[in-house]
């Protein structure tokens, strides 16, 4: 059932000695991007807008990052929610949950939701998020084949009956690994399928991927590499998967964790320019005047987004733009971390390079790889087992400091004193400065 929070009353603001009706700002979406934007708006321009927020899910805004630890039982459901009803009421924000925006008339300035409500606006923010990718193969619509993306998905997985014993998780990325870990913690027999030749192949190199695989196997997760799913098999419910080599893998449940794609259908219908995501400029403005987008639904230059950190930057930039302040979005690489107990892992930047430094301690399960560009600057890092120097390495990446003169000493943590001194000479920036990984 649709749920409304906050007063549906006309709001005003003071402009000099005159009282003026506040501009109507409609935010479509109630995920982490929209929630962060509300915080930034309250900081930069409190009271400037009469804000209405429409969310498709029945739940209040929640921290999607915590779905994996919620699945393992580390968090209760109440720990996930980002704001109370009182927070919205206190700030005069009108919230409508459980009613998707189905019609958007940008030029006329209104939106219609599935429950028949009309929401008028002067300015509009699209924060529609993303949709989980799926394989698109035969049998995908069978009961027992699902995604792991929303709070409703996590609730379902936390309440699986004892009869659901064999679970297959498809996708060896962050979410797939975290889902597999959460399910094995519930006593399920879990098989993790990865099409690539190692886990987290977009973030890690093969050596670090091997350490991760062995750790997951010690936790009781069977890891299968280089395999894909040809079809799902079952009459009225999932019974098995057929793999690309013809093998039949019996399962009571299959969880697809294959990544996401920006949710753009509403923007496209409304006439906004869309590529992979809703196209935005440096101020997060779309192709239509007074219409903005941020988060997983948007595309800045050629970049789309799936991590929280860049979306926080976007929320700040957009709030400042709505406040009439000057700012511009600039993308930067952010570190990848895995939320699995006992695994310390951090990766940032590029995963491969012609020039790199590597260190491996197999007894303790420690591995480091520092990738260098042609100018001798850090272009990427992979840390496994000991990530204590991670933030210092990331700072060096952001500062674009030339560090190749430090040689293998760099592997044991950036030394401030050594970095303060400029290198005496660099014979050839294109010459490899370390062993190949």
From TrEMBL:
It comes from the Bacteria. Residues 335-401 form the NADH-rubredoxin oxidoreductase C-terminal domain. It holds the Pfam family Rubredoxin_C. Residues 24-302 form the FAD/NAD(P)-binding domain. Its cofactor is FAD. The keyword Kinase does not apply. Belongs to the FAD-dependent oxidoreductase family. GO terms for molecular function: oxidoreductase activity. Keywords: FAD, Flavoprotein. This is Assimilatory nitrite reductase large subunit. The keyword Flavoprotein applies. InterPro entries: FAD-bd_OxRdtase, FAD/NAD-bd_sf, FAD/NAD-binding_dom, FAD/NAD-linked_Rdtase_dimer_sf, Rubredoxin_C.
